[in-house]
Specification:
With 338 residues, this protein is α+β, with helices and mostly antiparallel strands. It folds into 3 domains: 76 residues, no CATH class; 156 residues, no CATH class; 94 residues, no CATH class. It has 6 helices and 20 strands. Strands 2-1-3-4 form a 4-stranded mixed sheet, with no helix packed on it. Helix 1 packs antiparallel against helix 2. The N and C termini lie far apart (62 Å).
């Protein structure tokens, strides 16, 4: 009988070797089910075949149980979904996993690779990961069922495969940031409309986040016009574009009012830090760029009047310096092949 169990296990392993390389929690669950069923079926057949006459029913039962155990273990991967925040699918959409925050260790990227820690960025239209420099607490939040949701996701698939459109918070009509999971969108005047749709599904059923009619800057001022991005959990607007790499830094600065110096400075800081992380800029170039950005911010502080307003002349000077810095970042990135 031991031989039947061993044979069942080996046969199950031989038939489902590719299942050990599941690329997501959902695939791992599905493949483990297939591996368990396959192992049980093969084990039952072999157990019945090798058992003595009159004991074939018992041999089938024991062989089936043994084969199921082996088939299940063969399809178990090293990265344990019981410790996964969730995973990104090939469409860059987040699939949340209900796991206790104490047990959460990492997540699967869109290529099925295990990454330690919670997601701290987003995928651009080309599938390239863009890291954000925000603090870990601003990267995302837990929903009411204990599922981790990246702030940049704009929504997620829950553990039942249902799409949940959500945001990390919103500014109410008094300009106050209300953090936490919510659903809705801003209208053209910057009023939050609870339950409004912020995107649509394409022909393949994939959720596409629409350009927003505007955004609130770090001074809580509304800037009308097409904008693409998201708020982190602290209410800071993070501008993103279909081509969010640093190589197109000027052309990709869309949806933001160019006259908003603070938001442009914040955006440039994000681009410099992200490029430093993903190799678009050397540490030397990134340090120089950050020093120049700091100098611009100090000059801005000295220029602002008591009411916090910049004169048109001072604002034009700051914008010129930001143009120069933006061109420097782009040139450095292009020199490294980005």
């Amino acid at each position: 009988m031991r031989r039947s169990l061993l044979a069942a296990g080996l046969a199950a392993a031989a038939l489902v070797p590719s299942l050990a390389f599941a690329q997501s929690c959902e695939q791992q669950r599905d493949h483990q089910v297939v591996g368990t069923v396959a192992g049980a079926g093969i084990g039952a057949l072999i157990g019945s075949a090798v058992a003595p006459r009159g004991d074939r029913t018992a041999g089938a039962v024991i062989g089936g149980l043994g084969g199921a155990v082996v088939g299940n273990q063969v399809t178990r991967t090293d990265a344990d979904c019981a410790h996964a925040y969730g995973y990104y699918d090939q469409h860059n959409q987040w699939h949340a996993n209900a796991v206790d925050r104490v047990d959460a260790r990492g997540y699967f990227d869109r290529d099925g690779v295990w990454v330690a820690g919670a997601p701290n960025g987003y995928y651009d239209a080309g599938g390239r990961w863009i890291a954000t420099p925000a603090e870990a607490a601003a990267d995302g939040y837990y929903d009411g069922r204990g599922r981790w949701i990246p702030a940049s996701a704009g929504g997620y698939y829950d553990d039942n495969g249902q799409w949940i459109a959500s945001a990390s918070g919103y500014y109410d009509d008094n300009g106050r940031w209300v953090s936490g999971e919510t659903t809705g969108a801003y209208d053209a005047r910057g009023h939050w409309v609870s339950g409004a749709r912020a995107g649509h599904t394409d022909a393949n059923g994939v959720w596409i986040v629409d350009n927003q009619p505007g955004y609130y800057d770090s001074s809580r001022r509304w800037h009308a016009g097409p904008a693409r991005g998201y708020y982190d959990t602290r209410g800071v607007w993070i501008a993103i574009t279909p081509n969010a790499g640093v190589a197109g830094v000027d052309s990709s600065y869309q949806g933001a009012d160019r006259r908003d110096v603070d938001s442009r400075e914040q955006w440039l800081e994000q681009r410099i830090r992200s490029a430093s992380v993903n190799g678009g800029l050397s540490q030397y170039d990134a340090s120089n760029d950050m020093r120049e950005l700091g100098a611009i911010r100090r000059e801005e502080t000295g220029m602002r009047r008591d009411d916090g307003v910049l004169s048109p002349r001072d604002e034009a000077r700051l914008q010129t310096r930001l143009d120069t810095l933006s061109a420097t970042v782009r040139q450095s990135a292009n020199g490294r092949g980005f």
